[in-house]
Design a protein that fits this description.
159 residues; alpha+beta; four-stranded mixed sheet
Length: 159
């Protein structure tokens, strides 16, 4: 961490090569696999369809924000794809996280989430797990993968 200027305001650097102010966000966190091409596409999808621009903050599962916000005992056994940390401190996994994201996006995505919610959770999780298993083969896995995000959206990312 570094201090900016004379105001002694704390800021953090991330792999996105920009500074992000620390503090308590008023939004929920979407943690994603920072090495997964599909996860990066999912983040870009959420950024594009979040009308309010405040539904989520984003951070990689491999980053310091995830380590700081989710206790070690809660991290054990979590999937390495997408995890949502709600304002209430609840961790949503697999299809529950996916449906929550769609609901938060609103509009037609909320309707799609309602339709998908009719499907038994076990079946949705089965489909989610299948996609998670093949995602690296289909969308790639790289250690140096960072999404290219326009400057106006970079402030929504934490390390």
């Amino acid at each position: 961490m570094t201090w900016r200027g004379g105001s002694r305001q704390r800021v953090r650097c991330s792999c996105y090569a920009f500074l992000v102010e620390s503090g308590t966000p008023a939004t929920e966190y979407l943690f994603y696999d920072g090495h997964c091409g599909l996860c990066h596409r999912a983040v870009k999808f959420v950024l594009k369809h979040d009308r309010s621009g405040t539904a989520f903050r984003f951070a990689p599962l491999q980053g310091e924000t995830f380590l700081a916000r989710v206790a070690a005992e809660r991290r054990a056994g979590l999937p390495d794809s997408v995890v949502v940390l709600t304002r209430d401190g609840e961790l949503l996994l697999r299809s529950a996280a996916f449906l929550h994201i769609l609901r938060r996006l609103g509009g037609g995505w909320r309707v799609l989430a309602a339709v998908l919610s009719i499907t038994p959770r076990g079946l949705l999780d089965l489909v989610y797990d299948f996609v998670a298993r093949i995602r690296y083969r289909v969308f790639g896995k790289r250690d140096d993968l960072c999404p290219i995000v326009p400057a106006d959206l970079r402030a929504r990312f934490d390390p």
